[in-house]
Specification:
With 313 residues, the chain is of the alpha+beta class. It is built from eleven helices and nine strands. α7 packs across α11, α8 crosses α9 and α9 crosses α10.
Amino acid sequence: MQSGTSGEVDQETLAEAVSIIPRPSLKPATGRSAAGQELMTFPVGAEGRATAVLIVACDAPLHPEMHRFGGSAAMLLRLLLRDMRRLQTASRMVRDSITRLIFSQRIDSALELAAEMGLATPPSRPHIVCVRGVSAWDPDDLLDLLEAAVPPDARQLLAYIDDDELWLLLNRVQFQAMAPELVALVDRHPALRVLLTEQVPANKLSHRWQHWMNDIRKAPAGTVVDRSHYQGETPSDWVHKLQRDGSPQVVEAVVEYLRCRGRWEAAAESLELHRNTLRYRVSSAEKMLGLDLTDATTSSRLWLALRSEGLAD
């Protein structure tokens, strides 16, 4: 604010006011601008942190009433920021829970919680973002930074932090706005690493989870692993990966499951296995390949690839 003459504080006065703020700790301070204005600065913050500064510029000499006025205004702003931060923290806790529910594939529960709390419906095909190396960051500071990168009406980010990793579920608008900021963030903080993924159906996240974990944990610090334009491996790639990373028993289970067109009892009987054993082996193959073999198109493509590689007839 400015007292004495009408108008806004110009950039030069603002810069001079900032220069009188004492460091490293913020506390009320006074000074004089080059134009002769009296300046006062008051720290404004919440939860023990100064997040803003109230600046008072006055043409006339400062008097006690102006000091009291500035101090009272700063106190009111502190109370307002405290309440806003508490509401923000409560909202983030709810969105943390929604995000965890979606990653654990409890989609209906996540949708119900979002609706009950008046939040936007979670995206059905989110982009996934992981930022690794965040253990030294204050979670609120990191989320404040990322939320500032997206449009105001899209700042209710679905995110959770576990140990050293931040995971986010973003819709297309949020992802397109945030991706450049994430790249810049790694440039400024080379201890971080970031993973950006393609859009994935929310109910199929578990099929890609292990791949993402491997990608982000193998990436060197200071890198961005961009999978946002990932178009998927070919069926031939699936077969080679299955042979390379899966046991012969797993390959056999997948072949027979597909041969029997998903009929568990028939496939288990053919292999002389308990049905649960067959389910376990097929499930391990799905996680390994990042596929859903109950999907007719996917299972057909894999079956044809297995036949072309001579693993099925």
